[in-house]
Amino acid sequence: MRAHIGIVACSAEGAALCYRSIVHYGGEHLGTYAHPEVSLHSHSLAEYVVALERGDWDRVADLMLSSAHKLAAAGADFLICPDNTIHGAFPKVARASPLPWLHIAEIVARRAQAAGFRRVGLLGTRFTMEGEVYPQKLGELGLDYRRPSASEIDTLHRIVFEELVKSVFTAESLAVFQKVMKRLADEEGCDAMVLGCTEIPLLVPPDRSPLPTLDSTRLLAQAAVDHALGRDVPGRPHEVLP
Questions:
Q1: Which of 34, 48, 171, 216 is most deeply buried (CB count within 10 A of its CB)?
Q2: How distant is the alpha carbon of residue 102 from its chain centre?
């Protein structure tokens, strides 16, 4: 039996990449053109951005829960959100959700542990790089992490919101990310990079990264397919091994 995947979308590029990855990964396991059933709901990104800029995590949670209820009504069996930033509201969402979730940071942290990484660099939006979503999940597994510097955080955050979510991917911005990643490796001892914004993999493919990358978007998609097919390790609904 294949479970129905519900995608709580936020930004278009990240959600689209996640959906495509589910389809492609599903085909690898189920045969050509085959994949688990998928439904997607998205509120306007502008609504999320306004709430984030105000620090209104209750509003972020309300938007996520609104999508969750609509996806439950559409027949979804469990939910994923291909947006690292809004996982800052996850504790509020989990308490009131009509369906179980897979947690993107738990999936990434477990993949980092399985790969033997010890200290990862954390890239994403300001909310992700300065927040506690990844530090908490990495810490639960005994993994160390490093954040970019304050000026690097400002620059990466600007690139995400002024370029990546608008489908703008430039060589200049790729070079900025590569420079930050190399510094985190050389000066901070990082042995891998968490691509903790779901658009970053579209700018920084594995062959252009100075370090191994943990692609949160594709790892979430793979975990969702595995979960839908009953291939994951039993545990809490939002604590799934990729």
A1: 216
A2: 11
Domain 105-215 matching CATH 3.10.560.10: the answer reads no
How far apart CA 222 and CA 227 sit, in angstroms, is 9
- pLDDT digit string (tens) for 110-141? 999 999 999 999 999 999 999 999 999 999 99
What's the DSSP call for residue 136? H
Phi-psi region of 239 (alpha: psi -120 to 50; beta: other; left: phi over 0): beta
Q: Return d(Cα 8, Cα 47) in angstroms, integer.
A: 14
8 Å CB contact between 237 and 78: yes
- Decide if domain 5-103+218-228 falls under CATH 3.30.479.10: no
Q: What is the pTM of this model?
A: 0.93
Could you give phi then psi for residue 128, rounded to 5 degrees? -75, -45
Q: Where in the chain is the domain with CATH 3.40.50.1860?
A: 5-103+218-228, 105-215
Pairwise CA distance, residues 112 & 105, whole Å? 10
